[in-house]
Design a protein that fits this description.
single chain, mainly beta, 26-stranded antiparallel beta barrel, 13-stranded antiparallel beta sheet, 44 strands, 58% strand
């Protein structure tokens, strides 16, 4: 027997060498009838409204005409769409028995059985065929949705033809067969590319197939043995049965096999049970439940338990790695949406793991490999005329290493808002928001725990007056009062300076906020370009912008535990000024459609000035502003200068760039750029980001914590979805290391398909898991009518098969 990789190579070559359309096997030629039958047909009584008739070249009767021997080109019309052809047939009417030999062909609708000899009951229409093969059609099995994606289309929209064969085929039901020492395939070429052979096969067309001692062969080469195999052949959209196994390998876990059983509970629910086997570390079991009851009521829940024993591994460079300890871990993920009475909608979610190490080493997609956070929570929202309710439970834990983490979230956070409405007949608008929250902040390490959680009650009415008399100059003014009460606060030292200790001392903070958003005067210029091949007109707009925020002084700001923007009002005045340049083009978005104006390019430049330098430490308008720390050394009257650039010349092409420049030290704090191209068959994205080194600025003066990355992805496929490939990568420029790369490809023929994935990742010393580098490989087959399977850990995600 060939080894696994030789077998995989053989299957790959056979699938790639396959013709685009499979040619069905031609059934045996039906017996030719004489131009004029000199011998009248024999009519045999049969159950049902249609009588059976038999014609042949010659016939002989015996046993008082109860037994008949039909010789030469026999055709038995058994009523409806059922016929039997043979060269020689004995019919024993007293025993309801018939024996056919010589080129026997049983035809029932689209189903065919050809055999050397057949014995059947003329009343029940069941029988046994010897040294036989047959054809039957079933609907193609729909492809299972890949993790994180939608279900891809099936390989063909037509019914799948099942080819089955055996030393003995017993027809034990209208569409049910028992095959002895035989098998089946959905490749109906003269020589099938693959087949499943077994000692016993129960083939229940439009329901299920059960095999015992089954062997999957490709061109006669054995590739996979299963002691028992059950899978669906239903004509409905989904069916219960085993899914096609997936093979994989990794540096840490060795060779892997993923098997799953799919249970179609009903039209609205299904479940999948999964078993994983790892040659070096142990095994895992999992399940997934999905439901969709319509009207916004749907959800899914996935649970997985990993049981690993201790092992050692070798790094990709050949050096020995640290031994891993035995552990049992679990992972739970789910989402649910539910409509409630009273115009309420509820949502719930869980994304929780018991071990950060297992989560990063087991999962294969880049998001799960790099995520250091687990969470669970729920949300209820409602709206009644002018009022909106939002109640949220959110519990998140972020890990810095295997023993240090921090908890954040709200348990609960409830807000009620009276939506903005005009005040009488005036042009002013009034709104009010009230919120209660139990805010979580808990820092844990191996030997300490610091709990800074507290309750907060916030009430904020607001009046807004928009000035829109001139199109070229607008002013949007608001005045709001914010009353906030905290059940806990920071303690003060004897000299009045703040400490990091949170004590059970309440604090009330009233503030008044005045804001004016000014846009203009706006300058426009239009160019008519009727002969231009890109657009009929172009327009350039220059928009000066100025926002003035005046906040009353906050006397006890040093005692406030800051969680979000509600808490970060320092007091003083902030002036945010900038200049926006926008470019528009009036062009046809599609042939035959009228031209439309759309923004194709814009450049925005902005900066803020603060009368109180502490405001610069909490301004969330800038990416780098809140990362500077909270020391007086980093506080400044000026924020970073922010530059935003966006380009959208067509529906297929887009690009963005952002940079923040430090005006005090005349150095670049951060810069990033992204671009993408998307069409029906090609999708490509690339991104770049970098943090600058500024020796004088806290947060940017340590090269160990600076980032410089390039990442990209590309997805290419043919119009018929027969060939396709994906590639993605992330490169750490600062450390000259390829953090992650992923290569996937697939090929789909009419009756078989192949998909594989190769992935590497290397986080080096920054990895929380004990194995900073890993190489992974996954392989999956698709058999027409039988479907395929992808593991829960993200392998082969997004690969249509």
């Amino acid at each position: 027997m060939l080894n696994l990789f030789q077998s995989v190579a053989l299957l790959t070559c056979l699938c790639l060498a396959a013709p685009a359309v499979a040619q069905p096997v031609a059934p045996p030629a039906q017996p030719a009838q004489t131009p004029a039958l000199a011998i009248p047909p024999v009519t045999v009584a049969a159950p049902g409204p249609v009588a059976e008739t038999t014609v042949s070249d010659r016939r002989e009767g015996s046993n008082d005409q109860k037994d008949w021997h039909f010789i030469g080109h026999v055709e038995m019309d058994r009523g409806g769409d059922t016929k039997i052809y043979a060269q020689d047939v004995w019919v024993y009417t007293g025993q309801n028995k018939a024996i056919a030999t010589g080129n026997v062909l049983f035809a029932q609708g689209n189903n065919r059985i050809s055999a050397e000899r057949a014995e059947f009951d003329t009343e029940t229409r069941l029988g046994t065929f010897y040294h036989a093969w047959g054809l039957s059609s079933v609907k193609p099995q729909p492809q299972r949705a890949q993790p994180g994606g939608i279900a891809p289309p099936p390989m063909t929209g037509q019914d799948t033809v099942v080819y089955f064969f055996g030393e003995k085929i017993e027809k034990i039901g209208p569409k049910k067969y028992r095959i002895t020492n035989g098998g089946f395939s959905t490749c109906v070429q003269p020589t099938p590319r693959w087949d499943l052979h077994a000692g016993t096969v129960v083939l229940n067309v439009d329901h299920y197939t059960l095999l015992k001692q089954a062997v999957l062969s490709v061109k006669g080469v054995p590739m996979l043995y299963l002691p028992i195999l059950y899978y669906p052949t239903k004509r409905e959209d989904r069916a219960t049965g085993f899914l096609i196994p997936t093979y994989g390998s990794s540096t840490l876990r060795g060779q892997t096999f993923h098997n799953a059983f799919f249970w179609a509970i009903n039209r609205s629910q299904d479940a999948t049970v999964l078993h994983d086997w790892f040659s070096k570390t142990g095994q895992g079991v999992g399940t997934e439940y999905r439901y969709n009851f319509g009207s916004g009521m749907d959800g899914d829940l996935r649970a997985y338990m990993l049981d690993e024993h201790s092992t050692t591994y070798t790094q990709p460079d050949g050096s020995p790695g640290l031994p891993t300890s035995a552990q049992r871990s679990y992972d739970i993920r789910g989402n649910a949406n539910q409509m409630l009475p009273g115009n309420l909608r509820a949502r719930a979610n869980v994304n929780y793991f018991s071990s950060i190490v297992s989560s990063q080493t087991f999962n294969t997609n880049i998001y799960d490999i790099s995520r250091n956070q687990r969470s669970f929570g729920g949300n209820v929202v409602g709206a009644w005329r002018n009022y909106t309710l939002n109640a949220t439970l959110d519990h998140s834990e972020y890990f810095y290493d295997t023993t240090t983490s921090s908890i954040s979230g709200s348990w609960p956070r409830v807000s009620l808002m009276r939506n903005e409405r005009p005040i009488g007949n005036s042009q002013a608008y009034f709104s009010v928001t009230g919120e209660y929250g139990r805010l979580l902040r808990d820092s844990k390490s191996s030997d300490t725990e610091i709990d800074a959680s507290l309750s907060r009650l916030d009430f904020s009415p607001q009046i807004r007056y928009p000035f829109k008399k001139w199109q070229w100059f607008t002013v949007n003014s608001t005045v709001s009062w914010r009353e906030t009460y905290y059940t806990r606060s920071y303690a003060l030292a004897d000299d009045g300076s703040p400490t990091t200790n949170v004590v059970d001392v309440g604090l009330n903070r009233p503030i008044l906020i005045l804001q004016a958003q000014i846009v203009g005067p706006v300058f426009n210029r239009v160019w008519d370009t009727p002969e231009n091949g890109y657009a009929e007109k172009f327009k350039h707009t220059i928009e000066p912008v100025l926002t003035i925020d005046r906040t009353s002084s906050v006397d006890d700001f040093q005692r406030i535990v800051v969680f979000d923007g509600i808490d970060s009002y320092v007091g003083g005045t902030r002036y945010t000024y900038g200049l926006n340049n926008r470019f528009y083009a009036k062009r046809q978005l599609a042939p035959g459609q009228p031209a439309q104006s759309r923004e194709i390019f814009d450049v925005e430049l902005s900066q803020s000035y603060y009368t109180d330098q502490r405001q610069s430490l909490y301004d969330r308008q800038y990416q780098t502003q809140t990362s500077l720390g909270t020391t007086s050394e980093t506080a400044s009257h000026f924020s970073a200068i922010a530059l935003n650039v966006r380009a959208m010349p067509t529906n297929d092409i887009n690009a963005t760039a952002r940079a923040e420049f430090d005006g005090r030290y005349h150095a670049l704090r951060t810069i990033s750029a992204q671009g993408g191209y998307s069409s029906q068959f090609v999708q490509t994205n690339i991104g770049w980001s970098k943090n600058g080194y500024i020796p004088e600025l806290v947060g940017f003066n340590d090269r160990r914590f600076l980032d410089h990355y390039i990442n990209g992805s590309s997805n290419v496929r043919t119009s018929d979805n027969k060939y396709g490939a994906q590639y993605s990568f992330q490169y750490n420029v600062l450390h000259s290391a390829l953090t992650q790369q992923r290569v996937t490809a697939f090929y789909n023929a009419q009756c078989c398909g192949l998909a594989f994935e190769y992935q590497t990742y290397n986080y080096g010393a920054g990895s929380i898991s004990p194995i900073p580098a890993d190489h992974r490989f996954f392989l999956s087959f698709t058999l027409a009518g039988l479907g395929n399977f992808s593991p829960f850990n993200g392998a082969l995600s997004g690969v249509p098969r």
